[in-house]
Automatic annotation (TrEMBL):
Protein name, entry field: MFS transporter
Keyword 4Fe-4S: no
Keywords, comma-separated and alphabetical: Membrane, Transmembrane, Transmembrane helix, Transport
Principal place of residence: membrane
Places the protein is found: Cell membrane
UniProt cross-references to InterPro entries, sorted A to Z: AmpG_permease/AT-1, MFS, MFS_dom, MFS_trans_sf
Gene3D superfamilies for this protein: MFS general substrate transporter like domains
A Pfam entry, by short name: MFS_1
Region forming the signal peptide: none
Stretches of the chain forming a coiled coil according to its record: none
């Protein structure tokens, strides 16, 4: 298995449990009579992801020379993911034991977020600039595939074979990542930071690179807030249009994931051929058109076929834009502090997404769905214009185009 195969396994397995917790377990608990207020507590554990930058420097500073710096972390974390899922096995009626179940889920999210830091650091070290589009396309597509399997397939297994079969399947699929890490041979690290203080200074020094502040505080908020505001309106608009919760869950959690997975992979390959700016323009134009296609839903008219098509179109476009944002974040991630750099840059995007959801819903209450959707379109358009200007002035450096590691070190045993 090569570099991209290794990264695919790592990213898919980290999202399997996340998809199960946020989608599948939520449905199972609701079916067991859990109140919506209590279910909201389960979603709060997701806030661990945006703050993972707080401990990312620890992974950059400490690691085993013998087992591989980040591989040593991945061995522990991937095993922790499997064991945490297995810890759910005794709770065959999770609605009756919510306290322990939520605690276990919080532990899983923590291990998953930390595994993501290590996986991103490995990606920063292994991928040259020409491969980063493909690598980040895989990462974004993997999140949807993980949600599809964890939030969709495992729920179907639960419905037919019960709790133990669903959790067992989830743990078995996650264990594939442990096998991949076990066989992975990480190149020896020669750029290890000496002091933990130096590792934490990377949280700030990353923004000192040419154009990084322009990208992070200009392009990223415009695109994420614009697209996030529109997406936050989808579920309440579907409810207002009379859709059942079951139909909403299937369409938004399963059906739209398929084109999103394909879009992530295509966008990743497209970046290698057309560049970051070119794919950003394609994603922005598609987001604008799909937002217009969602306007009938925003006005209360939601025929099944047209609405599903518009949602698939929108999420695919959002995925394309997301791949570009992740790729440029990786361009700004330095090999010596890759876990910290990529984590702090991507965490800011997550914060923007949370803010966007709140802003979108609050604005919709005052101005209505269509007005907010059109405003989001304007923000995305501005983000694309600023992003293209950024890429023209700050393209990936020539040094980043060349591999810094011998080709033989990029293999697995």
């Amino acid at each position: 298995m090569g570099r991209l195969g290794t990264l695919t396994a790592l990213y898919v397995t980290q999202y399997l449990g996340i998809g199960f917790i946020t989608v599948g377990l939520t449905a199972i608990l609701r079916d067991g009579g859990t109140s919506l207020d209590t279910l909201a507590l389960l979603q709060v554990v997701g806030l661990i992801w945006p703050v993972k930058f707080l401990w990312a420097p620890v992974l950059d500073r400490y690691g085993s020379r013998h087992r591989g710096h980040y591989r040593s972390w991945l061995l522990v974390l991937q095993a922790a993911l499997v064991l945490t899922l297995l810890a759910l096995l005794p709770f065959s009626r999770p609605a009756d034991r919510l306290g322990p179940v939520i605690a276990i889920c919080a532990a899983f999210v923590f291990f998953s977020a930390t595994q993501d830091i290590a996986a991103d650091a490995v990606a920063v070290r292994l991928l040259v600039a020409s491969d980063r589009g493909t690598g980040n396309g895989i990462q974004v597509a993997a999140s949807y595939l993980g949600n599809l399997l964890g939030g969709g397939a495992c729920v179907l297994v639960y419905d037919r074979f019960g709790w133990a079969a669903a959790v067992g399947l989830l743990a078995a699929l996650t264990a594939v990542g442990l096998l991949v890490v076990w066989r992975f041979r990480e190149p020896e690290r020669t750029d290890r930071v000496v002091r933990i203080g130096a590792a934490y200074r990377a949280l700030v020094s990353v923004f000192g690179q040419p154009g990084c502040r322009w990208w992070t505080f200009g392009v990223v908020p415009l695109v994420y807030v614009g697209a996030g505001m529109a997406y936050a309106l989808v579920t309440p608009a579907l409810v207002d249009a009379g859709w059942s919760l079951g139909r909403i869950g299937v369409v938004t959690g399963v059906v739209t994931s398929v084109p999103a997975i394909a879009a992530g992979l295509v966008a990743g390959l497209g970046i290698g051929r057309f560049g970051r700016a070119g794919v950003l323009v394609a994603g922005g134009v598609t987001l604008a058109l799909s937002t217009v296609a969602l306007l009938p839903l925003m006005t209360g008219r939601a025929p099944l076929g047209g609405t599903v098509a518009a949602l698939c179109f929108f999420l695919a476009a959002y995925t394309v834009a997301n791949v570009v944002l992740y790729t440029v974040n990786m361009d700004y991630s330095r090999p010596g502090s890759g876990g910290t750099d990529f984590t702090v840059l991507s965490s800011f995007g997550l914060v923007c997404s949370f803010v966007a959801a709140s802003l979108g819903l609050a604005a919709a209450a005052r101005f209505g769905y269509p007005a907010v959707a059109l405003a989001s379109l304007g923000l995305v358009a501005a983000g694309v214009v600023v992003g293209v200007a950024h890429q023209r002035r700050f393209p990936p450096s020539a040094s980043a185009l060349r591999p810094t590691l011998p080709a033989t070190d990029l293999l697995v045993r």
